[in-house]
Amino acid sequence: MFNIKARTLLRTTATAAVLIGTMIPARASITIAVAANFTLPLQDLLASWGSLEGYTGTFFSGATATLEQQIISNTATHYDLFLAANTAAPNDLYSNYSTRVINPPFNYAEGGLVLWSGPSKSVNITSGLPYPVTTDLLIAGPSTAPYGFAAYTLLNDSPWSAGFTTSTGPFPGSGNATQGHVYLGGNIGSTYNNLLNNTSNKDYGFIAKSDVCLAATTAPYTASWNTYVTGAVYAYEYYAEGGGSSDANYPATGASTWTTDAAGSHPFGHILQGAIRVNGPAPSAEIESFISFLNGTTYPGVALSIIKKYCYRWAIGQ
User: Fold this and answer.
1) Nearest to 34, CA basis, from 139, 143, 183, 189
2) Which of these, 235, 304, 300, lies nearest to 45 by C-alpha position?
3) How many CB atoms lie within 10 A of CB 8?
4) What is the pLDDT of residues 54-64, one digit of tens each?
5) Per-residue model confidence as pLDDT tens digits over 65-122
């Protein structure tokens, strides 16, 4: 388990290198552009892959739209693989910027959206987002961060009916009381850190489930909150299909058994996370080796068990 200092460091640095010390001689390195929410799983994946294959990997994390724009503008010629927080960005690159990428995109995870109050505030939101909203809250920037857009979609739904007409804001808005309480926390990693460290002085906000949840990697894959911090924290997960729960274990029995929260059902687009190989400098064998590891073609189940650990929806029988 990571301690909080290590976790915060990873969330606040734009780049990190994973250098693997194994008995296998190190070979060429690959460089990955990764959505902020997947930073910690990627670190574990690179470490495991490196121990098995003897490669090293470096990653740059940030908002999905920002990373995509770097690839489009060719200002980041060192990227070999793009792990986005949505499917739209990889699909856009494949359809409209074919010289920048190699091979079709593929999905590697599905994220969960969680309303979270950290140890600095410890506001009990286990029944979901209050209505009416009477305190300020944080979301990731919806124009660049898929998790932020999911929160934006939810806030525009009844009963909060924020009435935002564009994902570019302004935030907070002045159209109604709900709009006036919605602030931006940057990318999804920065939003988590703002709440964790109380730098924004907000009671709660919407973050990625993987930031605050760990699951066992063997059946029944039980998940739990508050795995990285000390002190009282509260969490409530919203489901893309509608409804939600304060239970970290996503209902495996189907939507018909889900209990909607007190404010009703608020569906939003599934946060499917897609990847695509970028036309970068790494030798083909090295990057294809990591892709095969990630999708389970080689070492079946190893990468999946790591992704499961961070409570992505594919992780715990979901």
Assistant:
1) 189
2) 304
3) 18
4) 999 999 999 89
5) 999 999 999 988 899 999 999 999 999 999 999 999 999 999 999 999 999 998 989 9
Distances (CA, A) of 198 to 4, 118, 171, 273, 317: 14, 8, 19, 28, 33
b/e map 170-179, b = 16+ CB within 10 Å: ebbbeeeebb
Q: Give the integer Cα–Cα distance in Å for 4 and 12.
A: 12
Which pLDDT score is estimated for 301? 86
User: Which residues belong to CATH 3.40.190.10 in the chain?
Assistant: 4-110+271-309, 111-257
CA of 231: how far to CAs of 103, 120, 167, 188, in Å?
46, 8, 34, 22
Phi-psi map region of 305: left, alpha, beta (phi>0 left; psi -120 to 50 alpha)? alpha
Q: Regarding the domain with residue range 111-257, which homologous superfamily does it belong to in the CATH classification? A: Periplasmic binding protein-like II (3.40.190.10)
The half-sphere exposure of 222 on its side-chain side, counting CA atoms within 13 A, is 1
Q: What's the rounded Cα separation, in Å, for the pair 288 and 279?
A: 12
At the topology level of CATH, where does 4-110+271-309 sit? D-Maltodextrin-Binding Protein; domain 2 (3.40.190)
pLDDT value for 12: 40
